[in-house]
Amino acid sequence: MQIIQWAAVGVAILGIAATRAAADEPLKAMTFNIRYGTANDGENRWPLRREAVAETIRRCDPDLLGVQEALDFQLDYLDQQLDGYEVIGVGRDDGRRRGEFAALLVRSDRLEVVDWGTRWLSDRPEEPGSKTWGGDLPRIYTWANLRDKPSGRELHVVNAHWDHRSQESREKSAQAILEHLDGVASGRDLAIVMGDFNAGPENPAIQQLRADGSGLRDTWAAVHPDAARPSTFNGFRLPATGPQIDWLLVGPGWQVQSAAVIQNLIEGKMPSDHFPMTAVIRTSD
User: What domain range includes position 180?
Assistant: First the structure.
């Protein structure tokens, strides 16, 4: 099991080897629930841990990052602190800046944003603030078509935050994401699906995403098939003993090289009440 804690080509004939190396360059993806910044968290409130969040991201150095529970001022802070990322997403309450984002941060020197959008996990997916599946709050996912600059391939990413109470909402959210992937040009082959799903591995909604017919693979299980599953929710307490509720899944066109849960303090500070997950992936051909 890989629980990360911080510690200290030859010449190409006719350019063929160099082209292959560029096309196969690994991509690092990361999902991170950063805990909404207006929460009454006492010694763990946002102004006291925001640098720990930014430093965690810097150390992980992802090409593609999905954050959940991010409010507009938190995204503004990360945009100021992190170099080289394009931030995309909208607030779930009004489709602009109000309410939590399920935003994507895309490293501009590696990935080109071709198209993107946000959909609501309800019977009215285009209506900002809508909620119809038994949840108390609006729930969303942000999607993007991205072009990988080294290879020229197009990939599709979905970053979601599911409901924390309604099982109906979680199961319908899983189905909505699978149907969404069926409707995009790249399909599920080079898909990346990440987020805080508020559901452990035995939950039917997670099993639906991980079913053989879905085409999606759990990056953690791909690398650590016999290891105990890590806790990803910590509640600002160590050791964390809860289930894995944060997920990073990929389509069949990806090889998974590594996967990790980052359980670290930064100068004694817990960055969030969730641990981030990372995976290093590369195209399989």
Answer: 26-283
How far apart, in whole angstroms, are the C-alpha atoms of residue 27 and residue 37?
Answer: 29
75-117: per-residue pLDDT in tens? 999 999 999 999 999 999 999 999 999 999 999 999 999 999 9
Domain count, the chain: 1
- Minimal CA–CA distance to 241: which of 233, 251, 249, 250? 233
User: What is residue 238's three-state secondary structure?
Assistant: coil
User: Is the distance from CB of 240 to CB of 233 less than 8 angstroms?
Assistant: yes
Integer Cα distance of 163 and 169 in angstroms: 6
In a domain, 187, yes or no: yes
Q: What whole-number distance in Å separates Cα of residue 124 and Cα of residue 30?
A: 29
pLDDT digits (tens, 9 = 90+) for 31-62: 999 999 999 999 999 999 999 999 999 999 99
Q: Is residue 202 part of a domain?
A: yes
Would the pLDDT of 1 be above 60? no
Beta bridge partners of 254: 283
In terms of DSSP bridges, do strands 64-68 and 27-33 run parallel, antiparallel, or are they unpaired?
parallel
Q: What is the pLDDT of residue 7?
A: 39
Q: Does residue 3 lie within any of the structural domains?
A: no
pLDDT score of 8 more than 80: no
Position 59 in a domain: yes
- Indicate the SS3 state at residue 106: strand
Nearest in space to 104 (alpha carbons), one of 63, 139, 137, 73: 63
- CATH code of 72's domain: 3.60.10.10
